[in-house]
Amino acid sequence: MCCGIMNGKSGLQQSKTRREQKIHGLRVLFYALIFLGLAWFTWHGIWAWVLFGVIVIEIGVTAWDFVVEDKTRVFRPMERMTHLVLSMVGGAYVALLIPVLTEWLRLPSIFIRAEYGLWSWILTFLGIVEFAWGIRDLWSGLALARNHSPALSPRAD
Length: 157
Prior knowledge:
Blueprint: H1 2-6, H2 11-40, E1 41-43, H3 46-72, H4 77-105, E2 111-113, H5 118-147
């Protein structure tokens, strides 16, 4: 994808690449929020609905990303397999989180600080890495958009 841009592929390809980078950035920022939010807090009452909403939006953004990726480029078999495994892991985390969210819904609406030992630190590390990666992807998509801006393009006068 990036090689295509460097090799001067069409504006349509660049447009799709910019969109894909921005979608990746958005999706990864949702991952960061989920990881950091689950590392140190329990989301009781209405906050369980908020977390559920974040997860549903993340799933929607991921589905949108899959559609855009399929239109943007052809996947190698190993990359397609990686996407399959990541989707299965994502489904497993949602399946395991549903009973927890159901229990949290029954409680008064409040954030409660939680600590899960090493798991809290692992989720914190992953959340920070995902946040940085999300900013990088968003920045990359915005930079590609700026570099292809009509204002920067030579005029055909």
